[in-house]
Write a structure and sequence with these properties.
elongated; 8 helices; alpha/beta; five-stranded parallel β-sheet; Rossmann fold; OB fold (Dihydrolipoamide Acetyltransferase, E2P); five-stranded antiparallel β-sheet
């Protein structure tokens, strides 16, 4: 069995002990070679131990995870990362948009074990740097500049949010349609993306559809139909109409204010 070195960067001592205990009980192939709670300490530990995997809390004693990563040379970030956070913030969203491993605290033991299993499987993921690149791109970016990474059977696929027209729930996953008319399928349920996209001008208009409000050309109330600027149409449910119109008008006002 291959063994892998792990560093735990977490400023809460109790959480750090829980992480170490779970690793000890479930992962004989993982060896914890260092732990700390600050950006300053982490620099030295990561340099000296050269770990394969880092369990990294987003909020630390003297900064955040991205302060740490931004201060490192890109070639030195040759470890995989499992991010953790108890806060909802743009930092957390940057991680999730890039499909990088993430755990919301408080987590249970089963969730952590699954996350570590996934991280171990990705130790030799040659496309991991692409994920990190997407993550760093999305930090402090506005909606027009954000991109999302989707994991397809063929590999990672990045798409600017402004090019996503809608997502449609399908058995075993979802299909996303782009303004170009092309589409692609993912194996993750649409509801997972709905949560992430809802803050960026997307709305669940129907059990099967999440739409980009900024790409709507018209809302036909008699036929309960939404027409996009591309000419493509999708249905909406009548009981969602008040929220749909409210969100659509808010999106238009925001677009005008930024124009």
């Amino acid at each position: 069995m291959d063994s892998y070195k792990v560093v735990v960067v977490e400023d809460d001592l109790f959480s750090r002990r829980v992480v170490r205990l779970i690793i000890t009980n479930h992962f004989p192939e993982l060896i914890v070679v260092g732990e700390c709670g600050s950006v300053k300490e982490a620099h030295g530990i990561l340099r000296d131990t050269k770990p394969h995997l880092v369990i990294l809390d987003i909020q630390l004693e003297d900064g955040n995870a991205f302060d740490l990563l931004n201060q490192m040379n890109p070639e030195d970030i040759d470890f995989k990362i499992v991010f953790m956070s108890s806060y909802q913030s743009y930092l957390e969203e940057a991680v999730q948009f890039a499909a990088v491993d993430f755990l919301k605290k408080p987590f249970d033991e089963g969730e952590f074990v699954l996350a570590l299993d996934k991280a171990i499987d990705s130790i030799n993921d040659i496309e991991y740097n692409q994920r990190l690149s997407v993550m760093f791109n999305n930090l402090n970016k506005n909606q027009a500049e954000k991109i999302m990474l989707f994991q397809l059977d063929s590999g990672p696929y990045t798409v600017p949010l402004v090019e996503i027209e809608c997502g449609e729930a399908k058995p075993g996953g979802a299909i996303f349609r782009l303004v170009s008319g092309s589409d692609f399928k993912v194996s993750i349920p649409l509801r997972r993306y709905e949560i992430l996209l809802s803050k960026y001008g997307f709305f669940r208009c129907h059990p099967l559809f999440v739409i980009n409000l900024n790409l709507i050309d018209a809302i036909d109330i008699p036929t309960l139909t939404i027409r996009f600027k591309s000419g493509h149409t999708v249905p909406f449910e009548d009981w969602r109409r008040p929220s749909l119109l409210k969100k659509y008008n808010e999106a238009k006002e925001q677009d005008l204010s930024q124009g």
